[in-house]
Write a structure and sequence with these properties.
It is built from 11 helices and 15 strands. The chain has 330 residues and is α/β, with parallel strands linked by helices. The chain folds into 2 domains: 150 residues, Alpha-Beta Complex (Quinone Oxidoreductase, Chain A, domain 1); 145 residues, 3-Layer(aba) Sandwich (Rossmann fold), CATH 3.40.50. The longest helix is centred in the last third of the chain and has 16 residues. The protein starts with a strand and ends with a strand.
Length: 330
Amino acid sequence: MRAVVVEAFGSIGSASIKEIDPPCPGPNEILVAVEAAPVNFVDSLIIQGSYQSLPELPFVPGKGPVGTVAALGPGTSRFAVGDRVLAMAEHGGYAEAVCASEKNCYRLPDALSFEAAAAISLTYDTAWVSLVDRARMQAGETILVLGATGGVGDATVQLGKAMGATVIAAVSSAAKRQSGIDAGADHTVDLSVPNLRDDLRAQVHAITEGRGVDIVIDPLGGDCFDAAIRTLAWRGRLVVIGFAAGRIPTLKMNYVLLKNIEVSCIQISDYRKRMPELVRACYNDVFTHYVEGRIRPRQTTAYPLADYAKALDDIVTRRISSRAILRPGE
């Protein structure tokens, strides 16, 4: 089968397209014929060797592909050959086939296309666990979503609205305000203001009548984290997802103490390993929201497998606003 193979950590384009033997499902695994594999920012970090958890070399990158069950390993019971699934494999998606643990695979509703499922993969589960498990969001609360036009940010805006929150989308420029509104946000704030530390809080207080927000979801870090934590109301919660802005922030704990606020983090792959039933409940909920029309995954831009490097570069440089997916059969 054809696959993208990383033999040494390096630049995004350093991996090569090769013919390799298809994997064979082991105990409690299923083999999935890949129809679409989402292209994520995290894939670029893994290929470069700069992510916190790295597979052994050589490996095939790509998390969370979607496709059809092609074979069953010993001990499997949830699926049958021919089932359409989202396979939350940690790597292996940039290929024509991948093996994944049965407990980390989720049957797709008939109404959910492979393309839409690939757009949901790795973004909506991160958003859902951030809101439900880490932030313990309740209907009627107000949430501030940083990086709201990114993949996880967009998913968080949509799920927050679907769960009954008032959502404030933080965007990187005034020109992107409409994108936040189109995703379902009630309000937007601008992160490009000259004095972010003070101006972000002023914008949020103008919306919340001086109260602040109950929850901040932060995939950015850096100066945005420093400013966003000051927007929290008393007993507010901030969830760190990542550091797309580049700088890993630090925090003076006296501020946390004075406002009785919480700061937590999420590493979604740990949830798949340690709490698979919670993640299964997550996807059941997300799929229900989709089928009932409460969420709308982003449009996708498809690339053939040979163009994996272009797809990654388009994501990293933000040349596209859609979700990039690879089609291994093309």
